[in-house]
């Protein structure tokens, strides 16, 4: 720990102890976010700080020392037990460090980093607590008898945890409404023979964009649908839009701005930027991406057509933008901006369970139409689509003529 203060040694350090240096960093809040695989601890700081992290056993605990720091007088109380964290303890060390001890329910791996300020938060110290290697059990994909596999639809509720997404005039948070719509969509997909939904997040926690794609790939998803709600300064603008990845420029300036904002999710969530394989990956990506892009286009058109029947559509064509979360080379992917949360009427509709169900039904119908028109070989849906088995009747939409 002392190495973090190379310029202050021995007697100098001791003589400084009784009074706090004027530049002591304040910890303004400690927040815990628990996901199924990870628990994230976030400290809001008044400025940049040096820290050290130790993982200790018997009992399992994580010790974080923040150099030259104290808890702000107005700081919120220590958070309650969440996820793998059983208890949070705080103490000031004689050397001026703020020590935070996380008592853990099980052995974990810990990673920490300082996140720079952005337009939503100041400096944050982020500690990610994950299961130790070998504990994770891969999820097995179920197969429908007889020997025809089910289609896996990855449903990605945007934002979460630290990152609320867009916020409406009445305080509605994008992360909440898109999770509700995503869950509703999952229910509808799971109710259909030959299809299974997997949610990339199923709670109020942050998942880095790359992890969302990894989760979809780990489940061998046949389609990736990211659910969002748009926001724009002009509160009169409303309607839904459907996007696919653009290889080069975005369709228009507005799409480019939107992509930049949605991609900033990782910055807001404070993800560590330790994925340095981007350049190499993008070269390989381009080779396999064109095939899934054309599939994305066809699937997105189906979804847009259905959305057009239940809500205003902002633009009648599928839009293109460089959304990070759509960059899976091998999985057709789309991003649905369900409505403008910045439009007060649409904001209120987005909060209504009835409207959430309507949007989910439209997306579901679009996904259904796409797969019945383009069934992957060897799937249960391929059997159903070719009449090897009766085509299921959907109860979710009033009109089945599409
Ligand atoms: Zn969003």
Structure in a nutshell:
The chain is an alpha/beta fold and 402 residues long. The protein has nine helices and 17 strands. The chain folds into two domains: 2-131, Sandwich (Immunoglobulin-like); 143-385, Zn-dependent exopeptidases (Aminopeptidase, 3-Layer(aba) Sandwich).
Number of strands: 17
Gap between N and C termini: 66 Å
Assigned CATH architecture of the largest domain: 3-Layer(aba) Sandwich
The CATH homologous superfamily of the largest domain is called Zn-dependent exopeptidases
The whole-angstrom Rg is 24 Å
Question: How many distinct domains?
Answer: 2
- What does the largest sheet look like? 6 strands, mixed
Mean pLDDT: 80
Biggest sheet, spatial arrangement of strands: 13-12-14-17-15-16
CATH class of the largest domain: Alpha Beta
Provide the fold topology.
Elements: H1 10-16, E1 25-34, E2 38-45, E3 51-56, E4 61-66, E5 69-71, E6 85-92, E7 98-104, E8 108-115, E9 124-131, E10 143-144, E11 148-149, E12 151-157, H2 174-190, E13 195-199, H3 209-218, E14 223-230, E15 241-245, H4 253-263, H5 265-269, H6 278-310, E16 319-321, E17 333-340, H7 344-351, H8 353-373, H9 380-385
Parallel strand pairs: 1-5, 12-13, 12-14, 14-17, 15-16
Antiparallel strand pairs: 1-2, 2-9, 3-4, 4-7, 6-7, 8-9, 10-11, 15-17
Zinc ion is lined by residues 158-159, 165, 174, 228, 262.
Could you walk me through the main structural features you see in this protein, from its secondary elements to its overall organization?
The chain folds into 2 domains: 2-131, Immunoglobulin-like (Sandwich); 143-385, Aminopeptidase (3-Layer(aba) Sandwich), CATH 3.40.630. The model is unreliable at 1-21, 134-144, 272-288 and 390-402 (pLDDT under 50). The longest helix is centred in the C-terminal third of the chain and has 33 residues, at 278-310. With 402 residues, the protein is an alpha/beta fold. It has a 6-stranded mixed beta sheet with strand order 13-12-14-17-15-16, with helices on both faces. Strands 5-1-2-9-8 form a 5-stranded mixed beta sheet, with no helix packed on it. The chain is built from 9 helices and 17 strands. Zinc ion binds next to loops.
């Amino acid at each position: 720990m002392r190495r973090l203060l190379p310029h202050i040694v021995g007697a100098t350090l001791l003589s400084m102890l009784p009074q706090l240096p004027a530049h002591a960093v304040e910890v303004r809040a400690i927040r815990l976010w628990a996901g199924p695989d990870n628990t994230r601890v976030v400290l809001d700081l008044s400025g940049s700080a040096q820290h050290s992290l130790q993982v200790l056993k018997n009992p399992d605990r994580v010790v974080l020392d923040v150099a030259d720091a104290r808890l702000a007088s107005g700081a919120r109380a220590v958070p309650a037990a969440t996820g793998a964290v059983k208890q949070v303890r705080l103490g000031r060390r004689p050397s001026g460090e703020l020590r935070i001890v996380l008592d853990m329910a099980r052995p974990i791996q810990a990673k920490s980093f300082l996140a720079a300020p952005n337009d939503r938060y100041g400096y944050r110290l982020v500690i990610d607590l994950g299961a130790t290697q070998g504990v994770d059990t891969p999820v097995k994909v179920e197969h429908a008898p007889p020997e025809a596999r089910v289609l896996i639809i990855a449903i990605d509720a945007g934002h979460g945890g630290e990152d609320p997404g867009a916020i409406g005039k009445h305080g509605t948070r994008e992360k909440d409404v898109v999770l509700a719509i995503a869950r509703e969509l999952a229910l509808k997909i799971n109710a259909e023979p030959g299809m299974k939904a997997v949610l990339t997040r199923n709670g109020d926690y942050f998942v880095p964009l790359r992890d969302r794609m990894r989760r979809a790939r780990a489940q061998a998803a046949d389609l990736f649908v990211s659910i969002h709600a748009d926001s724009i300064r002009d509160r009169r603008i409303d309607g839904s839009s459907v996007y696919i990845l653009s290889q080069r420029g975005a369709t228009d300036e507005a799409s480019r701005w939107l992509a930049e904002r949605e991609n900033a999710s990782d910055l807001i969530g404070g993800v560590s930027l330790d994925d340095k394989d981007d350049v190499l990956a993008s070269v390989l990506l381009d080779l396999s991406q064109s095939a899934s892009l054309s599939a994305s286009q066809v699937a997105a058109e189906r979804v847009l057509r259905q959305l057009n029947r239940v809500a205003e559509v902002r633009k009648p064509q599928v839009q293109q933008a460089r959304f990070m979360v759509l960059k899976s080379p091998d999985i057709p992917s789309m991003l649905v901006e369900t409505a403008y949360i910045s439009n007060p009427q649409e904001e209120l509709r987005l909060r209504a369970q009835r409207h959430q169900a309507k949007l989910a039904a439209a997306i579901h119908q679009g996904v259904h139409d796409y797969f019945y028109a383009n069934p992957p070989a060897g799937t249960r849906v391929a059997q159903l689509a070719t009449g090897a088995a009766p085509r299921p009747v959907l109860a979710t939409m009033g009109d089945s003529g599409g």
